[in-house]
């Protein structure tokens, strides 16, 4: 799903101040029926993350934390079964999972006096049964299962998606009989930067409407939508580094990307939304 | 004398042309192609310093300044190198001012035509002085006198004022007029300096007239019938040609360029006005100028070209075509035209043009780049970052350097310096320098490196468009872009294309450490390449060494030569960078002290020895071109230092000795010579090389005679240079073609024409082929064996040995060392078993392991020997020709085995222990970190049957679906939201499929799925899942719920391979879900618990413990009681014989009755 910048902007426009809930996603799908759900979810997630990055600090002032905690306490005193924490998060436009973390941290601080370690908090978020307060456990759990952009469950889904696409790509490479080195092998050899796959024999990828092809030495799988922000970060941290070491290569954004970002073809960074169909391999003359 | 004048000044000549030939002045033509170009080129040198130099040189450089000129008197004894400036005495006449007007004076004789000459045209800087040729001296030193200024002592007896020399011109007027001209030039220059001290762009000197764009003027056609003094011109042409042939001119191509200028000179005449022909009477007078008309010029030029036909015939095809098509040439000498045409048709010297590929980065090679090559993690990671910064900077440069207003220093300087300080802190300069140098070589070896886009090939464009359109096209080009000229026939050293980046990088980095490392690295690489045993041309065998081989060898030579030139250029640049100054020291004292200071500094690379060795081994064709690049960056002091002076002298001697017409056994090949003449001629024009050096240096041939009487034929006598290489090394030779092309296009000036960029085409990497070190007699025998075999045999054997040796090491790593690592792993595991997970101090453990394992390393040598023995012969056999004699073959195989073994064993014996240690250490830390053995060793756990097509839903999809169900159950939800029982069933079915396939499953996903499935079960037990459908209660049928629970149980039992957190089913939170339902229903929980026990998923004790701990939580009283009942009920069943039956009974009754019954 390759979108033009204009198309992308139109979608992004609809995502301003939308809470990351099940319901929001449903509405978004109705609004853009022609786009794939995965693409929409990926864009939504990225846009929401940008929003959170922008506003993160204002939710972490001690005043803000104190006020959230008081509101939480007041809420659960009134009705422990009501979605107090979730509604609080939605009201202040903050991610429910992150709100749960703030409150949990504050709660543990109050009860243990020593600030809880990060690993303890993470563990409790992963398994709220460990939270000593039953009401808070339920509230936290509710936040986590209702948050579709943050939280341990979402992280796991994202990780799984990434892994699945790497496997998919590996299978495609095997199917095409292209031999490669994967990340683990590269790391074992001591490479300092490791794309998902380095082709042991480069191939030429033919592009639609272009006469000449592009040589590819490596392939990176990205199970997300390539928007400007993430693409630039990836370019800086990964893709150029790969180019600097291995030459030109291909990035597959499985959930599509903004067309205008595919501007480094001549330089040696190619973008695609699926595994290329037209590939030319080095011919071995079988004498 | 005439010749000297003659050689002295294109510029003045040009100016005269502008002035027209109206006045027959006895003033001699003071031609100075060199001077003319020098002026232009000096101006274009990088760094403004050179400019002032150029001008200073011109003003003060007159070796024959007017008498009594102040600068002469002072010095007394001028430094020997800087040139003896001595009062000119040869026939300095006392002629008064009643002379004819000086045509050279621009003020008096403004140029004809509307286009004024460019300022640079009037700035000759390196002017070759007129030399009065006395009979004595012409006898005694016939070889140097024509183009040299008089040497230190003046012959006391002067020839009479009226010169009877055959050169035709009387000396007196010449000298006088010359002095005048110098004075005028000086005046002119100072004027211009005031006006524009720093000319911003190089202006091509306008030795020739620009075409008039007014309609009334036309180019005067040249007519052989109207040549004024044939005989005299013929003689001069002969002498001039002899000077060229004997290398008595400082720059061969400069002279050719001048001749072609004459050939293509234009003179504008009004259409009607042709009557200014000098009268025949004056023509033969010795007093008349040599060139009185355009006809004279062309005649002379054609005469010279006839003499120089041999050189011409070696020029590239495009130039030959332009020459052959020149109508003037045809008109003056049809014979020459015919020969040129024949040469053109027979020529294969097409200088090809290749499309530039985009820049490639230096690839990461684990052998040299991984962590093992760095002293610390920090150094490794610093270098990792700096590598990326370097390319980032390079990319930014690519994007911006052509933009107006972009400045390297402003744009990138601070980033580069930050990078340098990082590298200094991490001591990683050597790594970076290696990257820098490799990238430099790589970019320049790739054809795109030479520079920007290419306009097109001149001759082809000519063919396509025809002459008239070409002119228009050219003007269009002029408007579109700045002329891509390489800066005349003698351009200053420049850094075209990517080289500019590397140069500016060095300047911006301004890091002492970096420069030092760079010089070290460049020097080493230069020596390595210079010493490369380049194959000598083999005398053709019966079948003739195949063309392919020959092409390959030529290509290899070109590649090595171009790489050397590039490296040497940068070495020269960096080495002389600290000494670069705007101009030579002003006073003699200052100069002496600097020279004294510099004399004791050892040269950065012992180039003199390399040169001497190169000459001795007859490898000048390889050594001299890069040495010239190196020296072209010398500062003003360098030529004054004894060390370098001797190099210059050697080079001059070499230059003189390269007489092109001399052929025969042992002589250097023609094109090899031509290349050396071109680069040396170019070097002699560099401003820092003292201008009079060429003429002053007494070539004491005997002293400098190098012993070239070696037995073997050196590289010099092998035709390794072709036109492609010649033009690549000396793009300025292409100026000849441009000049001719601009004649065709009807326009003048050397800014125009079509520039064909010549780029190197070799891209293969340079492999150092150092001869292997051998010892003793065997080594000598091996050497002797190769001596009489084709060089390809030696290359093959060395190559095989090198590769097999290296493969052997890798093989040992992968087998022996890997086995030892496995042993280490199992030893650790054993120890863990026995000592109950406690392994103890890792360092101690490592020591124990190493002491056990390292002795096994000794096997490496035996295994290595065995490997080389096994592998080498086959490889040698495969690579050598089938027809190789058996004895030769087996010797070659044995040598290869020996060399490979030597290489492998040397490495292994030195490194095997360290290697084992390193690998074992890595294994230990891996195990201690709990990673377990390497992924490969872990064994394939995932993987479905071969028949599986992996159509199961993806794990991520299922997690996400289950998450949705969980969120619906937990709420908040809209009233119309819910799930259908079918959906739940389908979901669990998919989960089953997916867990069977496992193709896309990763451990964290499985873990979360297990956890979510347990949560789902808890929600089912607590009846918390909102159900869509006809059932008004939105509750699940109990039978349905049980079916789903059974599916989950089966998943947990059979499908999940990781641990399932079943104890969560009895966590207070999940059991607490029951507390909220009214009426509470315990039957499903009881059912689930029984099934867990039944299926062996949990044992009773475990459940009992969980139930027990549940009581500790705070519950509503009634809930506690019910929980108590459940526990009792569950425990009671422990003793019943048929739990299955009991369970059935239990679930039979309707909701809410279970507890009542109990």
Automatic annotation (TrEMBL), chain A:
It comes from the Eukaryota. GO terms for cellular component: cytoplasm; nucleus. The keyword Oxidoreductase does not apply. Keywords: Cytoplasm, Nucleus. GO terms for biological process: erythrocyte differentiation. The keyword Cytoplasm applies. Signal peptide: none annotated. It is found in: Cytoplasm; Nucleus. PANTHER family: CDAN1-INTERACTING NUCLEASE 1, SIMILAR TO CDNA SEQUENCE BC052040. This is CDAN1-interacting nuclease 1. It comes from Octodon degus (Degu). The lineage of its organism: Eukaryota, Metazoa, Chordata, Craniata, Vertebrata.
UniProtKB/TrEMBL annotation, chain B:
Pfam families: Codanin-1_C. Residues 716-830 form the Codanin-1 C-terminal domain. GO terms for cellular component: nucleus. It comes from the Eukaryota. One of its GO terms (biological process) is chromatin organization. Residues 27-209 are annotated as: Disordered. This is Codanin-1. It comes from Octodon degus (Degu). The gene is Cdan1.
């Amino acid at each position: 799903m390759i979108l033009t910048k204009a198309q992308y902007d139109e979608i992004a426009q609809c995502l301003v101040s939308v809470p990351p809930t099940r319901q929001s996603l449903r509405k978004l799908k109705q609004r853009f029926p022609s786009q794939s759900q995965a693409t929409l979810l990926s864009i939504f997630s990225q846009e929401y993350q940008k929003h959170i990055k922008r506003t993160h600090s204002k939710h972490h002032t001690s005043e803000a934390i104190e006020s959230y905690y008081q509101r939480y306490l007041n809420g659960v005193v009134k009705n422990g079964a009501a979605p107090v924490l979730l509604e609080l998060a939605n009201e202040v436009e903050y991610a429910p999972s992150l709100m749960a973390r703030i409150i949990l941290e504050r709660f543990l601080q109050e009860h243990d006096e020593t600030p809880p370690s990060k690993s303890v908090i993470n563990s409790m978020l992963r398994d709220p049964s460990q939270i000593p307060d039953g009401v808070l456990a339920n509230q936290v759990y509710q936040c986590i299962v209702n948050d579709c952009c943050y939280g341990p469950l979402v992280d796991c889904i994202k990780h799984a998606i990434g892994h699945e696409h790497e496997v998919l790509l590996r299978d495609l490479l095997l199917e095409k009989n292209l031999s490669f080195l994967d990340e683990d092998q590269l790391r074992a050899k001591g490479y300092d930067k490791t794309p998902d796959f380095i082709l042991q024999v480069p191939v030429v990828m033919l592009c639609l409407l272009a006469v000449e092809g592009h040589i590819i030495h490596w392939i990176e799988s990205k199970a997300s939508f390539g928007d400007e922000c993430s693409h630039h970060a990836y370019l800086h941290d990964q893709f150029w580094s790969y180019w600097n070491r291995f030459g030109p290569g291909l990035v597959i954004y499985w959930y599509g990307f903004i067309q205008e970002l595919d501007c480094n073809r001549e330089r040696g960074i190619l973008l695609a939304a699926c595994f290329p169909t037209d590939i030319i391999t080095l011919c071995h003359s079988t004498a | 004398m005439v010749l000297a004048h003659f050689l002295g000044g294109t510029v003045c000549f040009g100016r005269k042309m502008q002035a027209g030939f109206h006045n027959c002045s006895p003033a001699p033509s003071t031609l100075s192609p060199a001077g003319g170009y020098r002026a232009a080129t000096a101006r274009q040198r990088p760094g403004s310093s050179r400019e002032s130099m150029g001008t200073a040189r011109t003003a003060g450089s007159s070796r024959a300044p007017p008498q009594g000129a102040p600068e002469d008197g002072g010095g007394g004894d001028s430094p020997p190198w800087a040139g003896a400036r001595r009062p000119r005495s040869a026939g300095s006449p006392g002629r008064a001012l009643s002379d004819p007007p000086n045509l050279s004076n621009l003020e008096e004789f403004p140029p004809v035509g509307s286009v004024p000459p460019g300022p640079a045209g009037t700035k000759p800087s390196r002017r070759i002085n007129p030399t009065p040729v006395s009979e004595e001296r012409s006898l005694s030193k016939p070889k140097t006198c024509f183009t040299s200024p008089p040497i230190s002592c003046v012959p006391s007896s002067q020839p009479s004022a009226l010169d009877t020399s055959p050169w035709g011109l009387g000396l007196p007027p010449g000298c006088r007029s010359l002095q005048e001209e110098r004075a005028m030039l000086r005046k002119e220059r100072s004027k211009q300096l005031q006006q524009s001290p720093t000319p911003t762009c190089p202006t091509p000197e306008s030795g020739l007239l620009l075409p008039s764009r007014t309609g009334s003027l036309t180019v005067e056609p040249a007519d052989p019938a109207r040549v004024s003094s044939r005989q005299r011109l013929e003689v001069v042409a002969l002498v001039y040609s002899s000077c060229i042939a004997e290398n008595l001119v400082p720059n061969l191509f400069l002279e050719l360029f001048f001749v072609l200028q004459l050939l293509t000179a234009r003179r504008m005449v009004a259409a009607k006005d042709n009557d200014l022909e000098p009268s025949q009477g004056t023509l033969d007078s010795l007093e008349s100028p040599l060139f009185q008309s355009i006809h004279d010029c062309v005649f002379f030029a054609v005469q010279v070209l006839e003499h120089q036909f041999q050189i011409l015939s070696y020029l590239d095809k495009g130039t030959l075509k332009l020459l052959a098509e020149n109508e003037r040439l045809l008109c003056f000498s049809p014979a020459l035209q015919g020969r040129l045409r024949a040469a053109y048709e027979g020529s294969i010297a097409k200088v090809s043009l290749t499309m530039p590929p985009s820049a490639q980065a230096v690839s990461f090679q684990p052998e040299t780049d991984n962590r093992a090559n760095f002293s610390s993690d920090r150094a490794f990671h610093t270098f990792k970052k700096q590598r990326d910064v370097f390319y980032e900077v390079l990319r930014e440069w690519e994007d911006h350097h052509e933009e107006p207003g972009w400045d390297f220093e402003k744009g990138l300087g601070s980033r580069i310096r930050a990078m340098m300080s990082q590298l200094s802190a991490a001591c990683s300069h050597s790594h970076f320098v290696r990257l820098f140098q490799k990238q430099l070589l790589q970019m320049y070896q790739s054809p795109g490196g030479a520079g920007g886009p290419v306009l097109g090939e001149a001759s082809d464009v000519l063919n396509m468009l025809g002459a008239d359109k070409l002119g228009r096209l050219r003007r269009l080009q002029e408007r579109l872009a700045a002329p891509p000229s390489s800066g005349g026939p003698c351009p200053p050293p420049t850094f075209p294309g990517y080289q500019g980046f590397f140069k500016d990088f060095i300047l911006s980095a301004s890091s002492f450490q970096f420069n030092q490392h760079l010089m070290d690295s460049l020097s080493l690489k230069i020596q390595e390449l210079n010493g490369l045993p380049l194959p000598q041309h083999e005398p053709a065998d019966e079948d003739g060494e195949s063309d392919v081989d020959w092409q390959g060898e030529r290509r290899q030579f070109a590649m090595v030569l171009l790489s050397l030139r590039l490296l040497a250029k940068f070495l020269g640049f960096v080495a002389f960078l600290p000494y670069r100054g705007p101009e030579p020291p002003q006073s003699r004292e200052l100069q002496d002290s600097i020279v004294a200071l510099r004399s004791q500094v050892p040269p950065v690379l012992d180039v003199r020895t390399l040169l001497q060795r190169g000459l001795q081994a007859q490898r000048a064709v390889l050594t001299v071109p890069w040495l010239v690049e190196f020296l072209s960056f010398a500062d003003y002091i360098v030529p004054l230092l004894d060390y370098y002076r001797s190099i210059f002298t050697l080079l001059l001697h070499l230059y003189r000795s390269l007489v092109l017409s001399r052929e025969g056994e042992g002589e250097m090949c023609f094109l090899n010579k031509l290349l050396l003449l071109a680069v040396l001629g170019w070097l002699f024009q560099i401003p820092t090389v003292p201008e009079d050096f060429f003429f002053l240096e007494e070539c004491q041939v005997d002293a400098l005679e190098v012993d070239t009487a070696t037995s073997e034929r050196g590289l010099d006598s092998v035709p390794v240079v072709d036109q492609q290489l010649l033009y690549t090394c000396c793009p300025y030779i292409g100026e000849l073609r441009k000049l001719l092309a601009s004649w065709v296009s009807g326009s003048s000036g050397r800014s125009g024409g079509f520039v064909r960029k010549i780029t190197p085409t070799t891209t293969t990497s340079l492999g150092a082929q150092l001869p292997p070190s051998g010892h003793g007699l065997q080594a000598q025998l091996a050497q002797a064996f190769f001596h009489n075999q084709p060089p390809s045999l030696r290359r093959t054997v060395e190559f095989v040995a090198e590769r097999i040796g290296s493969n052997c090491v890798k093989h040992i790593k992968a087998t022996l060392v890997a086995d030892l690592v496995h042993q280490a792993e199992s030893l650790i595991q054993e120890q863990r078993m026995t000592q109950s997970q406690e392994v103890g101090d890792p360092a101690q453990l490592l020591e124990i392991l190493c002491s056990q394992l390292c002795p096994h390393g000794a096997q490496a040598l035996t295994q290595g020997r065995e490997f080389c023995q096994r592998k080498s012969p086959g490889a040698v056999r495969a690579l050598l020709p089938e027809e190789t004699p058996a004895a030769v073959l087996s010797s070659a195989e044995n040598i290869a085995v020996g060399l490979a073994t030597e290489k492998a064993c040397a490495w292994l014996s030195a490194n095997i222990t360290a290697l084992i240690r390193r690998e074992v250490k890595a294994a230990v830390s891996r195990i201690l970190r709990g990673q377990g053995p390497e992924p490969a060793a872990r064994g394939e756990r995932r993987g479905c049957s071969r028949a599986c097509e992996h159509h199961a839903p993806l794990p991520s999809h299922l997690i996400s679906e289950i998450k949705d169900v969980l969120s619906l159950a937990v709420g908040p939800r809209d009233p119309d939201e819910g799930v259908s029982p079918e959906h739940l069933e389908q979901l669990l079915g998919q989960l089953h499929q997916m867990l069977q396939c496992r193709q896309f499953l990763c451990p964290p996903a499985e873990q979360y799925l297990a956890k979510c499935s347990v949560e789902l079960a808890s929600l089912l037990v607590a009846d918390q899942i909102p159900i869509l459908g006809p059932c008004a209660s939105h509750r699940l049928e109990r039978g349905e719920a049980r079916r789903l629970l059974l599916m989950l149980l089966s998943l947990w039992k059979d499908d999940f391979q990781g641990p399932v957190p079943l104890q969560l089913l009895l966590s207070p939170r999940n059991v607490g879900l029951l507390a909220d339902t009214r009426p509470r229903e315990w039957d499903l929980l009881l059912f689930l618990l029984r099934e867990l026990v039944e299926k062996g998923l949990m044992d009773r004790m475990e459940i009992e413990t969980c139930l027990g701990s549940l009581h500790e939580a705070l519950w509503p009283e009634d809930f506690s009681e019910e929980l108590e009942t459940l526990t009792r009920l569950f425990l009671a069943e422990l003793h019943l014989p048929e739990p299955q039956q009991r369970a059935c009974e239990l679930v039979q009754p309707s909701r809410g009755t279970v507890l009542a019954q109990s």
